[in-house]
Amino acid sequence: MRRRWAAAIAMALLLLLTDARPALAGAPITTAIYTADPAALVVGDTLYLYTGHDEAPTGGTNFVMRDWHVFSSTDAATFTDQGARLAVSNFAWAGADAWAGEVERGADGRYYWYTSVNGNGPGWMNIGVAVGNSPTGPFTDAIGGPLISDSTPDSAPLNIDPTVFTDDDGQVYLYWGSYYGLRAARLNADMTSINGSIITPSGVSNFWEAPWMFKRNGVYYLAYAANDAGCSQPNYACVRYATASDPLGPWTHRGVVLDQVSSTTNHPAIIEFKGQWYMVYHNAAAPGGGNFRRSVTIDKLYFNADGTMQKVVQTGGPVTPGNLAASATPSTSYVSPWETLGAIKDGYTPANSQDHSHGAYGNWNHQGSEWIEYQWPTAQTIRRSEVYWFDDNLGIDLPASCQVQFWNGSAYVNVPGSSGCGVAANTFNAATFTPVSTTRLRLSITSRSGYSTGVLEWRAFS
Ligand code: FUB
């Protein structure tokens, strides 16, 4: 497609000035940083997302989270990072772990940010509260200590993941918890103290963590992460939901609204904005992402006529401009019957070489040389290939070598001037070459001795 340079330059300037990054539905709201644990709030014509900030190094095996960011949008597609508006250091009594939070507007017109944070005192996680005069702050500690801690009577096994909900009569409710323990309480009008005793809501089947509460057409909804075998693989989580006619329950479980995602944790925020409902959640789909390098994304959510929610379609990662794979027909010398050749061109950015969440091409138990191929109805000019290898740590391993080839009209030949064909794990292996005009591009793969090979994603660029 012909580039419109003037428009492109104008857009680049706009991006530089505003730090707004266009996001297709399903794409990360930003790839400048890793984000997690979204909460959503609509103020006027703006959708605000409050997120955690993953700073674990590549291959890290623990959360490294020091602050929270605010993102704003007026179209739920392009988000502007307003920066780190709250940090662990804003709570003098806390020392680490800026985990999930949510912001709610109080009756006094101020914005209260309920957070999960690790206190310096006895116990582990606490719920703190910061307050600011606008949706973007600045925010300061509203209490000078935790609202909920391990010493709060009847608190959760792990006091994290607050969700705050204001009913039509002005009563504010706090839900929170993890490790299969959900708790709820009324808040006083000051937004910083508990009114009455803490309850354990009933009927919230398979609750694990990450509650999110909202109301629609007089019905209360509670969405939450669940990690039972009925909805996710071991160590992963889906999002289930329950409904109730009273904000404190009892709740009736209604099903799964979001399947497991590519990160082990799952975390919902559900909100209506400009007449459309959305599911905001995180996954590991951004380049270089992982379980501790997550990315917040947004997809549309639809209700059935009876008020139940349809399962959210995860639209995948960002569409990569110029990737000709989308319009190609794939074929192969062999694919295992249980694998999916089409997965190599679904546009997904794998979290790592073991990320089978969007399917994979695999040729177990064939060994030696196999190939995958793209074919187009008309000749394409191609100058770059990018392949993300599949390695299941079982019979499929990284290849010994590979070669990009093209159909020259009578035979397959190696692409000329190739920079090489990489076989590294956990990344796109790029090969650039002298442009070829062809209707067929082939990736020839030679396995390591004793193993088969597989591909998660293969891109071809003009
Ligand atoms: O980000 C840290 C924790 O992971 C959150 O508090 C949980 O909801 C899970 O997403």
Q: What topology emerges from the helices and strands here?
A:
Layout (H helix, E strand, L loop, with lengths): L4 H14 L1 E3 L11 E10 L2 E9 L12 E7 L4 E10 L6 E12 L5 E9 L5 E8 L7 E2 L21 E4 L5 E7 L2 E7 L6 E6 L9 E8 L2 E8 L11 E7 L7 E7 L10 E5 L2 E8 L11 E7 L27 E4 L28 E2 L6 E21 L11 E7 L4 E3 L14 E18 L7 E8 L1
Antiparallel strand pairs: 1-5, 2-3, 3-4, 4-5, 6-7, 7-8, 8-9, 10-11, 11-12, 12-13, 14-15, 15-16, 16-17, 18-19, 19-20, 21-23, 22-27, 23-26, 23-27, 24-25, 24-26
Bound molecules: beta-L-arabinofuranose.
The site of beta-L-arabinofuranose (FUB) has 13 residues, from β2, β6 and β14.
InterPro entries: Glyco_hydro_43, Glyco_hydro_beta-prop_sf, Glycosyl_Hydrlase_43_Enz
Family: Belongs to the glycosyl hydrolase 43 family.
Organism: Nonomuraea gerenzanensis
Short summary of the structure?
The chain is mostly beta strands and 462 residues long. It has one helix at 5-18; strands at residues 20-22, 34-43, 46-54, 67-73, 78-87, 94-105, 111-119, 125-132, 140-141, 163-166, 172-178, 181-187, 194-199, 209-216, 219-226, 238-244, 252-258, 269-273, 276-283, 295-301, 329-332, 361-362, 369-389, 401-407, 412-414, 429-446, 454-461. The termini are close together.
What does this protein look like?
The structure is a single chain. The chain is mainly beta. It folds into two domains: 5-9 and 320-461, Jelly Rolls; 25-301, Glycosyl hydrolase domain, family 43 (Tachylectin-2, Chain A, 5 Propeller), CATH 2.115.10. It contains one helix and 27 strands. It has one helix at residues 5-18; strands at residues 20-22, 34-43, 46-54, 67-73, 78-87, 94-105, 111-119, 125-132, 140-141, 163-166, 172-178, 181-187, 194-199, 209-216, 219-226, 238-244, 252-258, 269-273, 276-283, 295-301, 329-332, 361-362, 369-389, 401-407, 412-414, 429-446, 454-461. Strands 21, 22, 23, 24, 25, 26 and 27 form a seven-stranded antiparallel β-sheet that branches. It has a five-stranded antiparallel β-sheet with strand order 1-5-4-3-2. The longest helix is centred in the first third of the chain and has 14 residues, at 5-18. It is elongated and about 80 Å long. The site of beta-L-arabinofuranose has 13 residues, from strand 2, strand 6 and strand 14. Beta-L-arabinofuranose is lined by residues 36-37, 52, 63, 99-100, 116, 160-161, 209-210, 265, 267.
